[in-house]
Amino acid sequence: VKEELLRPVRGMSDVPPSRARRLRQVEDAAIAAMRRFGYREIRTPILEKTALFARPLGEHSDLVEKEMFTFNSNNDDDGDDGKGGEKVSLRPEATVSVARALLAQGIGRGGVARMFYAGAMFRRERPQRGRYRQFHQFGAEVVGSGDAEADAELITMCRDLWRDLQIGDALDLQINNLGEAAERARHREKLADYFRRYADDLDADSRRRIDKNPLRILDSKEPRTKEIAANAPRLADELGADSRRFVDEVRAKLAAAGIAAKENPALVRGLDYYNLTVFEWTRKNDARAQNAVCGGGRYDGLTAQIGGGDKKIPACGFAAGIERVAELIAEEHGGDEMDAPDVYLVVGAEGGDKDEKIARHAAVVADALRAAGLDVFRNLDGGNISRQLHRASIKRVKIAIIVGEDEAAQNAATIKFMGEKAPPDSRQIRAPLADLAAAARKMI
Ligand code: HAM
Question: What is the reported pTM?
């Protein structure tokens, strides 16, 4: 029973320092890239009213029907046994929340809003490699612009970030045009009509979907159904001139920026709120189902769906899975590295590190190093100097700084190079406190 308690909840994980460091690097690089384009951070709650998500994400989507962590917001303090209150859910994504927050604050007042966020999202999916129940995204949203320049800017920003992270060559950009709601509705009807004519030849699952969700039939793996689906009416044929012109303009801007985008008519995205442009960055040469690193698109109808009135507020955005980006970096550039501090502070005396005078000097040394911007890990495990140096080498620090009786008396410290490549005469030097940080930096 006890061991069971020590394990995290299914689909969620404890992240050790080496891996956490990589996730942090991805997040920091993403934030830096987004800030370069003038995006500013917005934070929204992790819990939202369940009702907020149903329409924009799709009443019949897997996400809304079975993948949200939902519970009653009431605690029992008010004595009504948890009845009343309202249903709330852990956010499965952040676009809806950002739109809600901007509406609540009255968007438009300051013109176009460019927002970014980073944080935990929750989906009760079947866990597998690259798919978790708690995962982390960074994302960006442009709210209040219906200009194709906005779509192109978001994609350019991603391209820049992949370049910063040196994974640009490992990713493909796919793009599609979903048109407008009316165009999709017309396509759906034609699809249903078409499949109805072949109903007897379809597999049972697909037959059941003809009326409820004929688009899903296009994903069927049944050979005969696939054959039939191959000749089904295409959305592209239903798109009017305005829809086509818009996404063509996005494509032209991408081409001008030197960004290659593959046309993928099967790219539909899992969330209902999209129209016109949708895109995904996927891993090259990787047929795994979970190969999308980043996805997004335009969602001009979202604010109206969540009660922002009839006025359409055009918007677009994307989000990327931080774990998936980190996993790709690890595969491209080698595994996670030890997250070592710069300096291991060895506090030595014959009796270990308990000598008060030496301890006080160690504190002064640590202060000086930290003030100079170095990360200092002070020994707390006791032991003599050689034991402490052994621990320093396990931690893979580049240098150890030793403080003992002599050093305390001389207001100095000894720097010991712990790495492999140091000239023999500089392996170990003693430096007065005033020069210590500069000398340490030189060795790192
Ligand atoms: P999404 O495609 O659902 O879009 O998620 C974006 C990215 O989050 C995926 O490409 C993937 O990298 C990561 N991701 C999603 N689910 C999981 C999971 N269970 N485990 C690990 N990683 C996952 C959105 O969330 C939209 N809000 C994007 C957007 C923003 N559209 C417009 N604005």
Answer: 0.91
Give DSSP secondary structure letters for 258-313. Answer: T---EE-TT---S-TT-EEEEEEEEETT---TT-EEEEEEE-TTHHHHTTS-SS--
Contact 362, 378 (CB under 8 A): yes
Cα-Cα-Cα-Cα dihedral sign, residues 280, 284, 285, 291:
negative
Residue with the smallest CA separation from ligand 1 atom 29 is 318
Cβ 393 vs Cβ 399: under 8 Å: no
Cα–ligand 1 centroid distance for 127 (angstroms): 15
Residue 130: DSSP 8-state: T
Distance CA 165, CA 283 (A): 14
Residue pLDDT, tens place only, 162-182? 999 999 999 999 999 999 999
Per-block average pLDDT, block size 10, for the chain (444 residues)?
Answer: 89 94 96 98 97 92 92 69 80 98 80 96 95 98 97 98 97 97 95 95 93 86 92 95 98 98 91 96 83 96 87 94 96 86 89 77 97 96 93 94 96 93 77 96 90
Q: How many CB atoms lie within 10 A of CB 91?
A: 24
Nearest protein CA to atom 21 of ligand 1, as residue: 131
DSSP state, 43?
-
Consecutive H or E run containing 442: helix 433-443
From its phi and psi, is residue 285 left (phi > 0), alpha (psi between -120 and 50) or beta?
left
Q: Whose CA is nearest to atom 1 of ligand 1?
A: 295
Q: Whose CA is nearest to atom 2 of ligand 1?
A: 295
CB neighbours (10 Å) of residue 126? 9
The CA R_g of the chain, rounded to the nearest whole Å, is 28
Decide: 56 in ligand 1 pocket, CB within 6 A. Answer: no
Check the CA dihedral 221-223-225-228 and report its sign.
positive
Q: Is 143 in the pocket of ligand 1 (CB under 6 A)?
A: no
